[in-house]
Amino acid sequence: MFTGIIEAIGTVTRLEKEKDNLHISIETGLTSELKIDQSVAHNGVCLTVVKIQDTVYTVTAINETLSKTNLKHLSVGDKINLERAMKLGDRLDGHIVQGHVDQTARCTHIEQANGSWIFAFEYDTAYNNITIEKGSITVNGVSLTVVNSQKDTFSVAIIPYTFEHTNFNTFKIGSEVNLEFDVLGKYVAKLVSANTL
User: Fold this and answer.
1) Model confidence over 60-84: pLDDT tens digits?
2) In 96-182, where does DSSP find H-type helix?
3) Residue 130 pLDDT > 80
């Protein structure tokens, strides 16, 4: 389990394809605190540390993960949001995040708003996921509050700290991001699709 509060940004140093799997090596200041078999969220995707060497660690994404997330588009040099699993007893500063990405979305609008940024995203409704106004959403692993919730789009407001300390500052129109919808929103979506509300 995660909170959606990003601890560090890592840099992809190596990508190695092995059959349908992709081994991703990442350099970060967190590496010295990691251990083999530990779970780390990468742009919101929970992956297991399989190798550590100096300041670089490696995780493996299987085909199922690659097909449903933006990790398949990674290139050497890309910046990636990192969060270690939360400890029991810690403050829950974001919201409960499982690290299981539901689908991807595309950035459709970026606007500076007098000291903050507004990012809009569009997603495919075929998966029956929904956002809820003022509800929680995880974008590339970042816990955020939904504004302007529509059927297939939503926006988020990004404060300067988040802009500077996550890979939001690399987004462009058309950038693909990972979405994990709020557990409550998933439950409501199931009720709606079953016509029980």
Assistant:
1) 999 999 999 999 999 999 999 999 9
2) 160-165
3) yes
Q: CA nearest 84: which of 123, 20, 31, 17?
A: 31
Distance CA 166, CA 45 (A): 15
**Exposure b/e, 50-84, CB count within 10 A at least 16 = b:** eeeeeebbbbbbeeebbebbbbeebeeebebbbbb
Token pair, residue 108, equals: 């459709």
Stated pTM of the model: 0.88
Rounded-to-5 percentages of helix, strand, coil across the chain: 20, 45, 40
Helix or strand holding residue 132 (H, E): none
The mean pLDDT value of the chain amounts to 92
Longest CA–CA span in the chain (Å) reads 54
